[in-house]
Predict the structure of Fic family protein.
Amino acid sequence: MFEHIDKKKERLDENRPLPKYTLKSLREKLLLEWTYNTNAIEGNTLTINETKVVLEGITVGGKTLREHLEVINHRDAIKYVEELVQKDEAFSEWQIKNLHRLVLKGIDDDYAGVYRDQQVFISGAKHVPPAPFLIKEEMEQLMGWYEQADTKKLHPVTRGAMLHAVFVGIHPFIDGNGRTSRLLLNLELMKDGFPPIVIKVENRIAYYEALDKAHTEKDYNDFIKLVMDEVEDSLDLYLSTI
């Protein structure tokens, strides 16, 4: 299933390190597209060019403070993910809460990095997230699953996709679960040397449907395939510079 992806990654690895300024431009391109798309999926109305302007420190007229903060916060969260990858720190709930704290900083500080104490529902989904009193236990189960030897043996794409899907199914936070889950997915991929991926806003319906299928039927195949396609896109981008 992953042979063609693994071959592309092998080719990329053989040509590493990439030139300094090539890497810099790739990072800037993906940071912009990742930030724009992840926020657009959640309803942020900034265009990709407006997102670029906000990342450069300029305010866009007619847009809300929240929309501006979502861009700045996501940039800071990506920096945190990059730091975790460089330090090779063991995955932990503390990291998840720190990521979420960055995502909601200045937007909802009372709930930034804090598990929810209220029931929530996912708009348009059949799946209903667990009650608040179950969150601690379900997050412990998620971390336990991650630490299992069998999980470590999974292909990084499968492991990252399942981490994203299970996490967002638990929906442990009041807000910002989608952004956090996509950051976790890329954290997992980047740890294994894959470039970050962008779940594109134009694929939002397929993305939501694949997640709902994973949550209601425990069938992760559609979601893993969607992630695999985006991984290939990112590998192709990097390989185009060689």
The radius of gyration is 17 Å. The chain has a mean pLDDT of 97. The CA atoms of residues 66 and 107 lie 6 Å apart.
